[in-house]
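ok, trying the design again with the full structure, not the truncated one.
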């Protein structure tokens, strides 16, 4: 994620029932490029939603990515 301003970031993984299974990031981050690693070995096979939230104080943003873990 490339941020132009100091931004409050959230990255989390949810199962199909909407339960949060992993919280990757939940903090303010300085401007710049950031990433977070997810070790899927800890997840059971199935479908998940990876939710990225960013709030720079002007306009909150939210992106959802689908993740499928196959064993």
């Amino acid at each position: 994620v490339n941020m132009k301003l100091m931004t409050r970031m959230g990255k989390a993984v949810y199962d199909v029932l909407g339960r949060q299974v992993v919280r990757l990031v939940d903090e303010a981050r300085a401007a710049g490029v950031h990433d977070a690693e997810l070790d899927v070995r800890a997840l059971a096979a199935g479908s998940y939603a990876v939710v990225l939230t960013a709030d720079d104080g002007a306009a909150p943003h939210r992106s959802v990515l689908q993740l499928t873990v196959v064993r």
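Keeping the full-length input from now on. The chain has a mean pLDDT of 89.
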